[in-house]
Write a structure and sequence with these properties.
12 helices, Arc Repressor Mutant, subunit A, 6-stranded parallel sheet, alpha/beta, about 230 residues, globular, about 10% strand, DNA-binding response regulator, Rossmann fold
């Protein structure tokens, strides 16, 4: 933890939810809420003006939805991608995959306990990705059929297999299953630091920005599926 607080921008159209987030984050000694936005366009403008460390983004918002707002702030081609944490409602907001594809650093469910939400912000602020382990597999698996055909900008399964060592492929599969580094370490009988090294190598070899993109790619090329 540094002496400089994590600057948080809250983007949520429901005032009651925004108030709850502000209360939770403001109570943390290492966080500062620098602004709020009730629609996507205001979120983009506020983010560019305030330069927050983490943007807590709802998806369903008026004027401009959270997916497009995320794409403008963190998507392909952005000079300095913002760090976006999507907080969504599972089985209601089925656009979360598109938000991850648009550049979000991770997601949590809206009913996550405050401690998990706070930890999520800290995780994204560190530059790590956050995939809620309890829902990653189910959520991305829900979109597996949609993801299966690789687009022209994505490597094919054979390219991924050739690029990675067998151990790296094994780690990638565990990442896609929603396991944390500690959980992968326990399952593969290696240290968490070794897992972290493998993850870094995987991202570098496949030219991926973060763990989220690794999960999406694993499903897209068929290394794993929602029925595994």
């Amino acid at each position: 933890m540094t002496d400089t607080p994590i600057k948080v921008l809250i983007c949520e159209d429901q005032e009651l939810v925004r108030t709850g987030y502000r209360t939770i984050f403001s109570a943390q000694p290492d966080m500062e809420v620098v602004g709020e936005a009730a629609d996507g366009r205001a979120a983009v403008e506020a983010a560019r003006r305030l330069r927050p460390d983490v943007i807590v983004m709802d998806i369903r918002m008026p004027v401009l939805d959270g997916i497009e707002a995320t794409r403008q702030l963190a998507g392909p081609g952005t000079a300095a991608p913002a760090k976006v944490l999507v907080v969504t409602t599972f089985n209601v907001d089925e656009y979360v995959y598109e938000a991850l594809k648009a550049g979000a650093g991770g997601f949590l469910l809206k009913d996550a306990p405050p401690a998990e939400l706070v930890n999520g912000v800290r995780t994204i602020a560190r530059g790590d990705s956050l995939l809620a382990p309890a829902v990653t597999r189910t959520l991305i698996g829900h979109f597996a059929d949609r993801l299966r055909p690789a687009d022209t900008s994505s490597p094919a399964r054979e390219e991924v297999v050739r690029a990675l060592t067998p151990r790296e492929l094994e780690v990638l599969e565990q990442i896609a299953a929603g396991l944390s580094n500690a959980e992968i370490a326990a399952k593969l009988f290696i240290t968490a630091e070794t897992v972290k090294t493998y993850v870094s190598r995987i991202l570098a070899k496949l030219q991926l920005r973060d763990r989220v993109q690794a999960v999406v790619l694993a499903y897209r090329v068929g290394l794993v599926s929602g029925t595994d």
